[in-house]
């Protein structure tokens, strides 16, 4: 009997890529230079970063070609710093690429990237662990879901900057936020609570969902259902959630947009969750 993939995203990459190409083709010269919520990046910079994701997936993951040797990585912060430098180097070089050539390069790599992600066995060991979820080793289904969140997030940053919606849908947003929630147990790892404590996280509207964080003898675990009393609950709207959990907003920026019931001290830890390498 085939095992069920916990988060199914492999089939969504072509859908997301088609949406991206429609979006990039629609941009005016002014929109290419619009500021995004990623404070250092304009729209064209984000498009360049998405292109880098395609090229790295095909080169490193598919072909196992590691053209750049990382420095000594001894901590999570070391890893984040190195990745940030890689991203900055690429975006700086991509300043030389015109929007039309940027689109051409996306067209040359997007379909191949989608086909590669579709070909991966979801239950084999992933080439990279999903560190923001506290994993030292990940299976491909989680790694591919993380790749999906990258593609969704950066496309949404562009859409947000130019006010062109299109991927804030149940089909495309829910797998994104469902993957992000895997960082919740890691976020709460040092929070002390009695066994049986339950925290509810609600991303509202029809495109969101409800997740439960449960404290048991082994620590905190994520669940979609619960049999215990809910001690604390927090409700966040989808637009705030994707910006908050990708670190474009911080807790102090969003207090007016959230609702808390029960133990506030427990609930607000959710706002510290960061589901990207940042």
Automatic annotation (TrEMBL):
Question: Any idea where the Mycothiol-dependent maleylpyruvate isomerase metal-binding domain is?
Answer: 18-158
Superkingdom per UniProt = Bacteria
Alphabetized, the UniProt keywords read:
Isomerase, Pyruvate
Q: Name one GO molecular function term.
A: isomerase activity
Record InterPro entries: DinB/YfiT-like, MDMPI_metal-binding
Protein name listed in UniProt:
Maleylpyruvate isomerase family protein
């Amino acid at each position: 009997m085939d095992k069920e993939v916990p988060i199914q995203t492999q089939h969504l990459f072509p859908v997301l890529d088609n949406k991206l190409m429609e979006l990039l083709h629609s941009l005016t010269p002014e929109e290419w230079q619009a500021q995004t919520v990623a404070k250092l990046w304009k729209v064209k910079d984000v498009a360049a970063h998405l292109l880098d994701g395609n090229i790295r997936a095909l080169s490193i993951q598919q072909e196992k070609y590691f053209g750049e040797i990382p420095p000594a990585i001894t901590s999570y912060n070391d890893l984040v710093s190195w990745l940030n430098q890689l991203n900055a180097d690429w975006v700086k070089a991509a300043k030389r690429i015109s929007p039309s050539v940027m689109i051409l390069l996306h067209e040359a790599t997007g379909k191949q990237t989608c086909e590669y992600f579709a070909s991966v066995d979801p239950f084999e060991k992933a080439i990279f662990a999903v560190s923001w979820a506290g994993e030292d080793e990940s299976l491909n289904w989680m790694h591919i879901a993380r790749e999906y969140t990258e593609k969704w997030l950066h496309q949404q940053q562009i859409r947000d900057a130019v006010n062109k919606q299109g991927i804030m849908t149940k089909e495309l947003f829910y797998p994104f936020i469902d993957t992000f929630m895997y960082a919740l147990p890691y976020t709460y790892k040092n929070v002390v609570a009695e066994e049986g404590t339950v925290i509810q996280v609600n991303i509202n509207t029809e495109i969101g969902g409800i997740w439960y964080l449960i404290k048991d003898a082994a620590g905190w675990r994520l669940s979609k259902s619960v049999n215990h009393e809910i001690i604390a609950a927090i409700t966040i709207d989808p637009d705030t959630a994707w910006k908050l959990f990708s670190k474009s907003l911080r807790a102090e920026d969003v207090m007016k947009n959230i609702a808390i019931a029960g133990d506030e001290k427990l609930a607000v830890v959710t706002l510290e969750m960061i589901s990207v390498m940042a």
